[in-house]
Amino acid sequence: MLRLLVLLSCGVGVLAFKPKNSPTCGIEVSPNLIHHNPWLVYIEYWRGDQQTGNRCAASLVDSRHLITAAHCIINPKFTRLVARLGEYDLANQEDCVSGVCADPILRYEVEEIIVHPDYHGKSHDIAILRLAEDVPYTDFIRPICLPSGELQPDTVFAATGWGEIPLRGYYSNTKKIIPLPMWSTAECKAAYKRLNIPDNAICAGGQEGIDTCRGDSGGPLVWFKDRAELWAVTSVGTYRCGTKNAPGLYTNVAEHLQWVDDVLAGNYEKPEYDEFDIL
Predict the structure, then answer these.
(1) How many Å apart are CA 273 and CA 279, to the nearest integer?
(2) 149 belongs to a structural domain
(3) pLDDT in tens, the chain (279 residues)
(4) Phi first, then psi: what are they for 13, rounded to 5°?
(5) Residue 184, domain extent
């Protein structure tokens, strides 16, 4: 039985401590596309012995844990989740780019789901998945670093996933990577005057035809510094992806670092949860 934990008492801090990143986090071994974003994980949804058509992504942050969007867990109907790591092209058994071929993908059962206690709609849209086994690090499977320092006004993020291609109406089989400039909170609220933009959100994008879209939810919004850092989780956007001056909303991981650290360390009140099969 898959356990879903809704934590009832957890602190939330804003970069109140230095993340406990591993020496291998945030590093791509080469510029070859097949090595890009080795922390990106494809989530398989299963109901009994049938895989469903749901599509979400996640980010590997250590050998046992993934960070994704809470709405990827709360909304779909499933009985189990499987994390697919080392994936590049969903349509091929063997992935090769420019003469470099990836190792076979690895699949791990998700044994525990921890949803942020304050998740509601667009707010605190973040969850952590605990895998049943430790993941070995390879050239194609590596963790991403958690955020450190402060964002700059001219920050340009990179988003990645296998979601729908804006303005085309079909999903990408290969791992797509797009640049998304950050918007200030004031600019974002001005663009969405009728919406209550969460304070724990990052706005990015707003370029015609370049955007995350359906199926990219839960995936990483990355800031590449000396290493890649997971600054946000893909959350929501406009129905017509890639609309000019309509940025996407991403859950700010830096605003949830204390909670993330507590969960990764096992420092949360395990008796205080609702446990049920997700159907």
Answers:
(1) 18
(2) no
(3) 454 554 433 333 334 445 566 677 999 999 999 999 999 999 999 999 999 989 999 999 999 999 999 999 997 889 999 999 999 999 999 999 999 999 999 999 999 999 999 998 889 999 999 999 999 999 999 999 999 999 998 999 999 999 999 877 789 999 999 999 999 989 999 999 888 888 879 999 999 999 999 999 999 999 999 999 999 999 998 888 999 999 999 999 999 999 999 999 998 765 343 443 444
(4) -120, 160
(5) 156-253
Q: Are residues 191 and 101 in the same domain?
A: no
Number of domains in the chain: 2
Instruction: Please give the angle made by the CA atoms of 60, 123 and 59, to the nearest 5 degrees.
Output: 5
CATH number at residue 227: 2.40.10.10
Pairing of strands 96-97, 156-161: unpaired
- Asked whether residue 274 is assigned to any structural domain, the reply reads no
Q: Are residues 68 and 132 in the same domain?
A: yes
H-type alpha helices, the chain: 71-74, 185-191, 257-265
Q: Is 38 helix (H, G, I), strand (E, B) or coil?
A: coil
pTM higher than 0.85, yes or no?
A: yes
Do residues 70 and 128 both lie within one domain? yes
Phi and psi at 255, nearest 5°, equal -75, -10
Could you give the residue numbers annotated as active site? 71, 125, 217
Taking the CA atoms of residue 268, residue 272, residue 277 and residue 279 in that order, the dihedral angle to the nearest 10 degrees is -90
Regarding whether 133 and 48 lie in a shared domain, the answer is yes
If asked whether residues 43 and 108 sit together in one domain, one would say yes
Whether residue 114 is found in the same domain as residue 164: no
